[in-house]
Amino acid sequence: MNVDFVSSILRFYATHGLPLPPLPLGAGFIPPPGGPINATPASLPLPNFTFQPAQVVQTCESIEESGDIERLGRFLWSLPVNPAICEALNKNETVLRARALVAFHCGNYRELYHILENHKFTKASHAKLQAMWLEAHYLEAEKARGRALGPVDKYRVRKKHPLPKTIWDGEQKTHCFKERTRTLLREWYIKDPYPNPSKKRELANATNLTPTQVGNWFKNRRQRDRAATAKNKFCCP
Known about the structure:
This protein is mainly alpha-helical. The protein is 63% helix and 0% strand. It has helices spanning 3-15, 53-66, 69-78, 83-89, 93-106, 109-118, 123-145, 151-160, 179-191, 197-207, 211-235. Helix 2 runs antiparallel to helix 3 and helix 10 (197-207) crosses helix 11 (211-235). The longest helix has 25 residues, at 211-235.
């Protein structure tokens, strides 16, 4: 696998500020946020790339590691229709995980659930996919109820929508963050209690959480700090 091939794809579009090219949609892939991509100006020729399955997988890995999920969606959307290649890609864990990330990012939870329930993933992908499964169900429950969920609400959601065996090895899972994760989040909070989207993605990659979970942790921590400050002012005028 030539890594320079992947770099050349990403460097070309980043240099010219372009979305990845709007080619026919590959079978099973998800359109990017906002719908179809605008056509590229004819005055700027696009490189003639011929994608092989290994190259698609490597590119998905590179973009996923960067945390730019919207760009990942545009790449998947750009893949040309090729039945033989699509069949191979739709069985590849890296590509399936990329599709799941894009579906979660777009709020396409039905597609997310379909991917996670119908494909067996290795343990290395479990934590990230479990987080997306739970967070998606929490968000749907919040939208249906019109309010934020409390711990009891989340427990009921987990009971109603247990993790599928495709992303769970049967071990009991704690729904509290690990001490290392909490320590890292607290350290970042001290430096910046209002992280921007880029910092949230960086923290998500470092803690194996989703950007939404990171954002919710910071939001809840700010609320607790404000409540504690108000209580201290009331008790000690």
